[in-house]
Specification:
single chain, two-stranded antiparallel sheet, seven-stranded antiparallel β-sheet, alpha+beta, Thiol Ester Dehydrase, Chain A
Amino acid sequence: MDIPAFDSSPDPDNPGWLNWRMTDATRYNGTVLGKMIIRSDGANKARLRMFPEHRHSNLRDSVHGGVTLGFIDVAMFGTSRILGLIEAGTAVTLDLSVQFIGAGVIGAPLEAEVELLEETGRLLFMRGIVSQGETRVAAFSGTIRKPAKK
């Protein structure tokens, strides 16, 4: 029996949200980013939320920029999966452009709102905003390449 790559069961602490965790907790998502949840946010949109802890901080006690970048990458893939466009482990990031707007705060949920702009035969063009409440932390755009059809 194959074990699914992700647990996307309903999150009991956040009604309307699904867990977004790899069933192998020793991989990047679990060991670096920690708890994440996801929800569809209308046609071609999704939101992914993480919960920054001390381990995600830099020496300014803000969310480390590398954590924000990794979170954005995972958010694009999470959106692609929740929209039914890719399977786990089958696609790659081609490019990612990020504009840091402000610092993320440790202890407050960090949320990526991701929008699919266009899907071509093998490419997914996306953009989004990372925020904490009303504070914008980063803006981004990126492209994911889907696998070739077999």
